[in-house]
Amino acid sequence: MNWVDHIAGHTYHGRKGAIQNAFRYSVDYILLDPESDPDTPMLFSKNQPNVTNWRDLDHGGEPGQGRGAVWLREQFDQFGVAQPAHITLLTQPRVFGHVFNPVSFWFCFNDTDQLYAVVAEVTNTYGTRHSYLCHNPGFAPIQPSDRIVADKLMHVSPFQKVEGCYTFRFDYRAERVGVWIDYGREGGGLIATLTGPRTRLTDCAIIWSLVRRPFGARRAFLLILWQAMKLWAKKARFRAFRSAPVPDHPVSRIREP
């Protein structure tokens, strides 16, 4: 992969339980090889300032102190997992220097180009990050129909408890990418999706995105606050971040059956 893909996709969130809330927004993600030096359009750069860009320091480690794919490979070594032959990262880019990614996905492929692990990198609005290493038993190739379960360990939404589990599903193809997350807990939870076609990132695509969805991740952050206000108005219970546990390790593995 010697270029950057543009994912002009959609995200959907639907709340489960007594208090209902749902929304669907258009979003702009990129899919890139974090270890390569890809051909990029004029308005996008890797590890350099630009109108839109991507930086190692935004991923792999604490927000703003990341080390990109170097960090990811260190985690695989710590878990005793075979190193990926290559990696791609699905994430929102910086726009005018700002970025906030509620969740990014590291797709990890073996030497036969099969997807065998995905690291879901979750960041909350309090500046805390935790990642989930998702895989099948024995690291068998991940198919679009596979469902991978991980215990929820980090406080994300102040309107959800830190309990229950995530069920992930991944569909990674040459023409599109899709991620489905079903968070379940007693009496509640939510469903979140991210889907969209893969096309090569161009200056025209960047300009059109800036016109249609100005300010990139700033817009996403404001939409999160707007949905929080709606839940507050519906009298959903607010849970303070200070009362939530923080995982001891930056990455957790899924539960094997």
What's the arrangement of secondary structure elements?
Blueprint lengths: L4 E13 L4 E11 L11 E3 L5 E3 L14 H11 L6 E6 L2 E2 L7 E7 L5 E9 L5 E6 L13 E4 L13 E8 L3 E10 L2 E13 L2 H10 L4 H17 L17 E3 L4
Parallel strand pairs: 3-4, 9-14
Antiparallel strand pairs: 1-2, 1-13, 2-5, 4-6, 5-7, 7-8, 8-9, 10-11, 11-12, 12-13
Share in helix: 10-25%
Main beta sheet strand tally, sense and closure:
11 strands, mixed
Oligomer: single chain
Ends apart, CA distance between termini: 34 Å
* Average pLDDT, all residues: 87
Q: How large, in whole angstroms, is the Cα Rg?
A: 18 Å
- The helix-strand sequence is EEEEHEEEEEEEEEHHE
Beta-strand segment tally: 14
General form: globular
What structural category do the secondary elements indicate? mainly beta
Number of domains: 1
Pfam family, one: DUF1365
Protein name: Cyclopropane-fatty-acyl-phospholipid synthase
InterPro entries: DUF1365
Organism: Ruegeria profundi
Q: What does this protein look like?
A:
The chain has 257 residues and is mostly beta strands. The chain has one domain (5-253). The protein contains three helices and 14 strands. It has helices at residues 69-79, 203-212, 217-233; strands spanning 5-17, 22-32, 44-46, 52-54, 86-91, 94-95, 103-109, 115-123, 129-134, 148-151, 165-172, 176-185, 188-200, 251-253. The strands form two sheets. An eleven-stranded mixed β-sheet has the order 10-11-12-13-1-2-5-7-8-9-14, with no helix packed on it. A three-stranded mixed β-sheet has the order 3-4-6, with no helix packed on it. Strand 1 (5-17) and strand 2 form a beta hairpin. It is globular and about 50 Å long. The model has no long low-confidence stretch (mean pLDDT 87).
